[in-house]
Amino acid sequence: MKINKICVLGLGYIGLPTASTFATHGISVVGVDVNPHVLSTLREGRIHIHEPGLRETVEAALRNGKLHVSETPEEADAFIIAVPTPFYEDRTGEYNGQKYKLADMRAVTSAAEAIVPYLRKGNLVVLESTSPPRTTVDLLAPILEKSALKAGKDFLLAYSPERVLPGQILRELVENARVIGGVTPESSAAGRDLYAAFVQGEIVQTDATTAEMVKLMENTYRDVNIAIANEFSRLAGHFRVDVWEAIRIANLHPRVKILNPGPGVGGHCISVDPWFLVEAAPELTRLIYAARRVNDDQPHVVFSLSRTALGSLRGRRIAALGLSYKPEVDDLRESPAVEVVRLLQNEGAIVKAVEPFKPEPNLEGITAVPTLESAVEDAEAVCLLVNHRSFVELKPDRLARLTPARILIDCVNGWPGEAWSQAGFKVFRLGVS
Ligand code: SAJ
């Protein structure tokens, strides 16, 4: 299939890199978003998210005239839906007395509805948003068929999950293997032709529901692996071993690869996607459910560690280092670090947080300061929540000069070794007692 023009719906963490990468590979792209702020920022030649290399790619795409943005879709050869699929904050399902979260598919539904008037015979529609199994056939196809065209017959329809790692999106977009699951083999083949414009990794063709499962399995596998690391960190405290050392040694086994414990699992992928499987089949997902609960409880483990370190938290001054959901990104969505700060504050602690990738995070009720220096200057304890490079590279004597605090709560093993205690700090490390 020859594709000259694409319409990308959703210009967020995935849609914008995808739209601009197609555009820098010579394809005309119209990027559509319902958020006027996103559109006005792009029209001014700026971007609304932090991702290494994205600004340069968007600038190049705008400069070569191949990318333009709009409130509404336009006719095109292919449509890509890359809108968020979060879960509902105010609704849950229940199975056997256990509550689970429910996928909010409203953005996918309205993106699909927006395409209907522009859909023509022979077009290709691809859903990239992470979605519960069968979304493409059961939710998307019926909406698109309101155009009076039949999916798989009059137009081509496929699911192709994005699998890129925030922080490395532009590289992984090109280099990773890509899965295309068509509702028909012709749809998969058309998807392959589309992404072949820039994908250098293998392009694997399968059916739509398998592709949806693949995506959810990948992130669920990672969630379960992190959950076991977090559970090990609790056991390590119980048996008085250093979990970081134990994991390092266990991972020397050729068939073992345990991930790292930490303050919990955040972001808009791994902490969300396993719920899509639980919602779809709660009676079959006990392990997945348990892993989600372990990871969601992890901020409470950090909270307990802080209690161990400081005793009563009332009126105690704590510097929280990092608010993003993981190192080197500015994304605060579902961030366990934010949750830890809230738990400490609820107990009466006075917390000053610093997030170098988002110096003004605008989080209600949280005091964020722009620099590390101002966060620690009058602290009694310093709590390392995110392994940002600038934090990890801090030397003990430098931190000792910046702060009167001599208590460190290290939740991410960012400050290992003896140097910290030698510099006069008392270190409380997650997974070490
Ligand atoms: N985390 C740990 N311990 C670890 C690794 C991660 O606690 O050993 C935490 C992080 O701090 C973070 C969360 O898990 O809070 C998730 O971070 P991540 O780097 O594991 O993953 P994401 O959510 O940034 O990106 C994932 C990736 N999926 C997999 O690696 C299987 C990415 O490839 C997907 O494209 C992305 O989800 C997505 O969009 O679904």
What does this structure look like?
There is one protein chain. With 433 residues, the chain is α/β, with parallel strands linked by helices. It folds into two domains: 5-208, NAD(P)-binding Rossmann-like Domain (Rossmann fold); 245-429, 3-Layer(aba) Sandwich (Rossmann fold). It contains 16 helices and 16 strands. The strands form three sheets. It has an eight-stranded mixed sheet, sandwiched between helices. The mean pLDDT is 96. It binds ligand SAJ.
Helices and strands, with pairings:
Layout: E1 5-9, H1 15-24, E2 28-32, H2 36-43, H3 54-63, E3 67-70, E4 78-81, E5 87-95, E6 98-103, H4 106-115, E7 124-127, H5 135-144, E8 156-159, H6 169-175, E9 178-182, H7 185-195, E10 203-207, H8 208-239, H9 243-250, H10 273-280, H11 286-310, E11 317-321, H12 336-346, E12 350-354, E13 367-368, H13 372-376, E14 381-384, H14 389-392, H15 396-402, E15 407-410, H16 419-422, E16 426-429
Parallel strand pairs: 1-2, 1-4, 2-3, 4-7, 7-8, 9-10, 11-12, 11-14, 12-13, 14-15, 15-16
Antiparallel strand pairs: 5-6, 8-9
Short description:
By secondary structure, this protein is of the alpha/beta class.
Q: How would you describe this structure in keywords?
A:
2 domains, Rossmann fold, 16 helices, 16 strands, single chain, 433 residues, globular, alpha/beta, binds ligand SAJ, 6-stranded parallel sheet, 8-stranded mixed sheet, 17% strand
